[in-house]
């Protein structure tokens, strides 16, 4: 169980003592700590963690070497798609603006043959989209704008972490200008080449795959660009994926063994030509990357934790690299805010989930983007046959929206419509970034459990037609902490 493990024979307060992150004194001057949490890195993972903590009143300092979110091109491909579960995490951030600027609902997913003709097309439903196509630089700007309006969050730009020292309940973080920050926790969200991971002596185990890929991001002012679409191209001669949304195109090509990466960047017009007029495009980035399947040997050492690519790198073939990092901080944020004594739960829950995602991504890459022409021909035949089954679109949509489960079987509640005191709402709008206590209008919680939840800002709601005779206690990440039967 997670959160306050209340039960019929005990209360949450038997397990957790309500506490804020400590504001302890250090050194001869007994100087108060600079923050409750220092976060290294202000990419999407670090920024979302800061926002979720800041929303709960936790004092946060975010350290990032970039002076702003518009700094130069990333060395690796930016995220392209976010699934519905990750969208729910972002919607926990109250006041995160400009969704229409950085999130375009995905309307179509395709598998194409070597001739670029569709083998299978899935139409995606309206409403809460199964996926959104992401403009990551704009999301990062929106996140930084939100952090700037949070009174307990300070963004320390143009600085990097160079050293750390732990003593008791304090971690002292040294920056590259010689200054020091003290906090209860340090979280490394500083990417695959994480400095923080190196400072705690964690290895980065796994594999870096030899096949390089060329990624090209481009914009166009041409009218009548296609609806938002994601496509796998099942071409054993050159596997690739492509993305399209109004005004924006993206292509990713596997480079062949005898091709020089630098020379291939010079050939992007030739590669783009079958898909679009290169003269009508403004290429924003053309970069060669290799993909990795690596995991840090430890995600926690004392008061230092790792999240996102600092903890794990994932192959891109299921579009879950950024999503995995945001799931990390969705869990880590409530633990740091409400249950720091149980922070080891973070790695216990997230490491197996990341391993499962990684295996799925590797399998998808082998199947969809293989270069054996006989296997590819068989796959194309299978895909054509699958497209003949009626209702495939709806089945895929239901599978994509199915509630997630933790390795121990703990279930996540869906963002279901609810009726609360005669008012229609839905679960995510009701809870925001808080704990929830969903009751069936019967009985009451024991005083200890109610006190713990009240102290931690829980939302109490009597919900029509919800399970009667019990209270369902829901963590801020929407996983069920426990159910408490009423006496």
Radius of gyration equals 24 Å
Can you give the mean pLDDT?
A: 85
Number of helical elements: 13
Distance, first to last CA: 21 Å
Largest beta-sheet details: 8 strands, mixed
Write down how many β-strands occur, each being a DSSP E stretch of 2 or more residues.
Answer: 29
Q: Approximately how much helix is present in the residues?
A: 25-40%
Q: What percentage of amino acids are in beta strands? A: 25-35%
Based on secondary structure, the structural category is alpha+beta
Which ranges are low-confidence, i.e. pLDDT below 50, for 5 or more consecutive residues? 1-31
Gross geometry: globular
Characterization of this structure:
The chain is an alpha+beta fold and 487 residues long. It is built from 13 helices and 29 strands. Strands 3, 4, 10, 11, 12, 13, 21 and 22 form an eight-stranded mixed β-sheet that branches. Strands 8-7-16-17-18-15-19 form a seven-stranded mixed β-sheet. A hairpin with a 4-residue loop joins β1 (25-26) and β2 (31-32). α2 runs parallel beside α8 (321-338) and α8 (321-338) packs antiparallel against α9 (345-368). The longest helix is centred in the last third of the chain and has 24 residues, at 345-368.
Question: Could you give a short description of this structure?
Answer:
The protein contains 13 helices and 29 strands.
């Amino acid at each position: 169980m997670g959160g306050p493990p209340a039960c019929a024979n005990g209360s949450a307060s038997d397990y957790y003592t309500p506490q804020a992150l400590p504001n302890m004194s250090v050194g001869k001057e007994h100087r108060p700590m600079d923050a409750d949490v220092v976060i290294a890195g202000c990419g999407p993972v670090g920024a979302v963690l800061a926002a979720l903590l800041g929303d709960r009143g936790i004092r946060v300092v975010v350290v990032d070497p970039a002076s702003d979110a518009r700094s130069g091109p990333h060395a690796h491909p930016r995220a392209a798609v976010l699934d519905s579960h990750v969208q729910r995490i972002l919607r926990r951030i109250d006041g995160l603006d400009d969704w229409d600027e950085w999130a375009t609902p995905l309307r179509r997913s395709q598998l194409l043959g070597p001739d670029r003709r569709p083998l299978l097309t899935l139409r995606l439903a309206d409403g809460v989209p199964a996926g959104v196509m992401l403009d990551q630089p704009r999301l990062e700007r929106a996140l930084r704008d939100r952090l700037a309006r949070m009174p307990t969050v300070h963004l320390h730009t143009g600085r990097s972490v160079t050293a750390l020292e732990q003593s008791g309940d304090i971690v002292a973080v040294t920056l590259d200008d010689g200054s020091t920050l003290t906090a209860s926790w340090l979280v490394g969200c500083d990417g695959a080449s994480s400095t923080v991971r190196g400072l705690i002596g964690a290895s980065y185990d796994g594999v870096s795959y030899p096949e390089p890929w060329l990624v090209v991001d481009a914009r166009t002012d041409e009218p009548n660009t296609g609806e938002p679409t994601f496509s796998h191209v099942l071409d054993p001669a050159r596997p690739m994926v492509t993305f399209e949304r109004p005004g924006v195109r993206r292509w990713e090509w596997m480079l062949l063994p005898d091709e020089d990466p630098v020379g291939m960047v010079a050939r992007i017009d030739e590669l783009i030509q079958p898909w679009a007029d290169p003269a009508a495009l403004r290429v924003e980035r053309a970069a060669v990357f290799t993909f990795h399947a690596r995991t840090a040997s430890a995600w926690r050492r004392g008061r230092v934790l790792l999240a996102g690519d600092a903890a794990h790198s994932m192959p891109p073939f299921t579009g879950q690299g950024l999503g995995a990092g945001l799931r990390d901080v969705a869990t880590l944020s409530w633990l740091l805010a409400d249950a720091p004594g149980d922070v080891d739960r973070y790695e216990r829950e997230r490491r197996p989930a990341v391993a499962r995602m990684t295996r799925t991504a590797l399998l998808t890459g082998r199947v969809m983007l293989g270069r054996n022409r006989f296997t590819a021909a068989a796959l194309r035949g299978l895909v054509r046959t699958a497209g003949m089954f009626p209702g495939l679109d709806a089945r895929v949509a239901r599978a994509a929206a199915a509630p997630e489960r933790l390795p121990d079987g703990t279930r996540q509640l869906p963002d279901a419509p609810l009726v609360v005191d005669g008012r229609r709402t839905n679960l995510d709008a009701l809870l925001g970034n808080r704990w929830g206590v969903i009751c069936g209008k019967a009985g009451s919680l024991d005083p200890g459990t109610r006190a713990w939840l009240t102290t931690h800002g829980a939302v109490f709601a009597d919900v029509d037609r919800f399970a009667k005779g019990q209270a369902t206690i829901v963590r801020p990440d929407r996983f069920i902490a426990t159910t408490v039967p009423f006496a």
